[in-house]
Amino acid sequence: MQKDLFQIKDKVAVITGGAGVLGGAIASGLAAAGVKVGILGRTAGKVDAKVAEIQSQGGTAMPLVADVLQQDQLESAREQVLSKWGQIDFLLNVAGGNRAGATIGPDQNFFDLSITDFDAVVALNLKGTVLPTYVFGQPMAEQGSGSIINISSLTAQQPFTRVVGYAAAKAAIDNFTKWLAVEMAAKFGAHIRVNAIAPGVFIGEQNRRLLLDESEQLTPRGNTIIEHTPMRRFGEPDELVGTSIWLCSAASAFITGIVVPVDGGFSAFSGV
Ligand SMILES: NC(=O)c1ccc[n+]([C@@H]2O[C@H](COP(=O)([O-])OP(=O)(O)OC[C@H]3O[C@@H](n4cnc5c(N)ncnc54)[C@H](O)[C@@H]3O)[C@@H](O)[C@H]2O)c1
Q: Cβ < 6 Å from ligand 1: which residues?
């Protein structure tokens, strides 16, 4: 039995969406555990600011400016990580999100859906996970070890009203997580694992106005979510750190292909 099952010090992680709300909290948490973190995002200013924040707290981080939908940019980011740190142990696919046109408004129905926005949301959440995995998973396959963590959502298994494109794409993430877990174990051995986290509802930049009004009071939708959450609150981004460390570390050595809800009991509650 390994002495410290959760030890991940000196490992190397790439975190897509690492300058966002949830990815940023996970990045800070992994850095505090001694992991060298590559913060990958499209906007240099945001990525640089997150790297500076981690460094100011004594962590090790590098900026990786890339779009998760651009293979050449991801490959260049991979070369930056490998030339500086020599390995990639963890990939956290956190970049993702929704678009207004792929959401059905309160006074709309399915036939008002923008197919262009639907395509964009599916691309960001699904291809935006598959492509970084394709690029950053290759060094893991070569070294015969690694942990990949995708970000799903509660809406993958119990679709929320209105968010049709997002829900479909996150359902595909659950499927891809299982598919790739089998593929990696079968073709590259037991030390490459693929799992997902399904966060409950956390207040982020993208969903803030859906959940809270301008005076920070719950909207009707925010209230419905709280009523369906046994813990009666939204999640705090830091509350994703423990599950991330567990899924990266030897503590989860025999776990692959699962989706872990971190949701205050939402997915366990039938509503009655
Ligand atoms: N906030 C929630 O309640 C919640 C719940 C379940 C799942 N999620 C998922 O968690 C993840 C993070 O969400 P968040 O709330 O932190 O949102 P966020 O907007 O703060 O973070 C997403 C990050 O991804 C980046 N990004 C977007 N498109 C990109 C692209 N093409 N290339 C590179 N980077 C790109 C954004 O710049 C941003 O930094 C998303 O996948 C989201 O779907 C969020």
A: 16-17, 19-23, 41-42, 67-69, 94-97, 124, 128, 151, 153, 199, 201-202, 204-207
Asked if residue 57 lies in contact with residue 28, where contact means CB atoms within 8 angstroms, the answer is: yes
Give the Å distance between the CA of 132 and the centre of ligand 1: 14
Among candidate residues 181, 193, 2, 183, the one with its CA nearest the CA of residue 90: 193
191 pLDDT more than 90: yes
165 within some domain: yes
Q: How much of the chain, in percent, has pLDDT values that exceed 70?
A: 99
| Closest among 228, 102, 89 to 154, alpha carbons compared | 228
Indicate whether 30 belongs to any domain.
Answer: yes
Number of domains forming the structure of the chain: 1
Q: What is the mean pLDDT of the chain?
A: 97
134 is catalytic: no
* Cα 97 to ligand 1 centre (Å): 5
Q: Which domain holds residue 26?
A: 12-268
Query: What is the reported pLDDT for 209?
Result: 86
